[in-house]
Target: Inositol monophosphatase
Amino acid sequence: MPDDLSLLIEAAREAGEIATRIAGPDARRWDKPGDAGPVTEADLAVDTHLRQRLRGARPGYGWLSEESEADPTRLTARDVFIVDPIDGTRSFIEGSKTWAHSLAIARDGEVTAAVVYLPQRDLMYVAEKGGGATLNDAPLTASARQDVDGAEVLIAKPGLAPALWPNGVPPITRAYRPSLAYRLALVAEGRFDAMLTVRATWEWDIAAGALLATEAGALATDPTGAPLRFNSPTGQTRGILASAPALHPALRPAVPGA
Model:
């Protein structure tokens, strides 16, 4: 039986084969209730495969996925799969290549194994707790930037609203990618100095990427600097800030309710 990380890698490749057989712009799609965004037949096909593949191999693990019905029994499981079948569904629909499969395993609230896979770019990001992070088997090292002035940060425009920065919006260079998992992978790769989101964030969007970032040497917390914990009752965090460690204090916004 493969170890947890090998299992995630194999499952991610299988997910890529399923998703790439369905052309995004031609995929059947519909909108989720409650303005929760679009979903396609590819999202559901990948979710079904991953649920059967992963839980078939680890029947005692809990399950948390964007496209599966809530299963409260996960809260009593020590280990849980946290999965986004396709992170960046809108990009998938548009025919872009910047969508990803995000697969993680958390034990007692901490991610222990993670894969972010972009099949149409042949990018396989992998991390294991205490074992480092790699891209296509090459080790990753996050940015060691010291100066926030001009730092390249992946952040949506609302994250730079002046109300969030009482001492002034930091003098960063803003960039954006639609997939949160990919943004975190890019921080792990050192291609960007940081990424930040200040809205409530689903765990399946960030669990795998958070381990990639920290194992590459970045610091990943919620926007207030508090540690990230996974498999929570809500399945959400307050947001996420992953950055070169020296930049972290300067990139913490004022988060409502914090």
The chain has five helices and 16 strands. The mean pLDDT is 92.
